[in-house]
Amino acid sequence: MSSDYLMSNYARLPVTMTRGDGVWLWDTDGKQYLDALSGIGVCALGHAHPELAAAIADQAKTLIHCSNLYAIDQQQSLARRLCQLAAMDKVFFANSGAESIEAAIKLARMYGHGQGKQQPAIIVAENSFHGRTLATLSATGNRKVQAGFEPLVQGFIRVPFNDVEALHAVAANSPDAVAVLVEPIQGEGGINLPDDGYLQTIRELCDQRGWLMMLDEVQTGIGRTGEWFAFQHTRIKPDVICIAKALGNGLPIGACLARGSAAEVFQAGSHGSTFGGNPLVCRAGLTVLDIIEQQQLLKRAGITGESIRADLKKQLSDCAIVADIRGQGLMIGIELHQDCTELLAQALDNGLLISIQAGRVIRLLPPLTISDEEARLIVERLVMLIKDFAGRQAA
User: What is the model's pLDDT at position 394?
Assistant: First the structure.
């Protein structure tokens, strides 16, 4: 199929997928692929989940859209469910992760102005990724994403990720700071996990300074790490959580959740979305949550992820090119000592879908529904690719 009419903003691989089933995808030539990326962390239930497909079809026959000028039952039900799962108070529904982060940025600024700060600033981390809208790419700690879009949105203070001393320095010297926005695990940055106590330090600083603690859980949320939200592996509670990706399993939905005073910042007219939280996507979100609960997929993600990492460490223990294997739940990174972007195409040739982050980190985000045998196949194919790559580099 010709791509002459599409803007050239994606470096697409030379393949077109036509159908999926669980962890598997097929292209136009009938070739089968093991999807260890699940649409970049979106299809947590795998592809073409029958129960979800039935719910979407039923809702499409009933009501897809009616606008936020009116109450929407499915939206209210999903908001209640998410607040119960996250211990939050209120939700704003958007259409994507970037939009949910945009909502959080606006919320933090309005919160700051309410405190009498004329230039409210948000503390963000280096090597982060928060989206590609003008505000979210400005918050993102990746110069490549920002290049060519200057002037950037002002009002962000950047610090190294996982650096407690830097946070304390900002606290002492930034009177305009009103919030901290951080990923509990950096995804696009290379599956970077913070030290124990890092999120707790942020929580303590926010409490001391009257800041909002805002977590970007777009990639980590909805079961990816073995809990509903990654912060639930700790004892802290954020003030704002942003989610998307797996919530709709492919349908475009995002959400900004807030509690306490943060939940009261937006009033009528403060923010909005034409499509956000329509009946179709909220029905899908409710069904996704039901399936995760019914099939105990949180526990499954934790156990399977630990097994995959253990198998990779065992089978690659003698591979000098491997620098680290890390992750939480089914969010896994294999860092090599050198650039390995060529593995993206080689994995595709071998029927395996992965991504490469930061040039040398292989990222795995398989569906939460993956079987033991499918997990074994991912490890088997990936080990073969890495060892073959290492052999070529040594030659």
Answer: 81
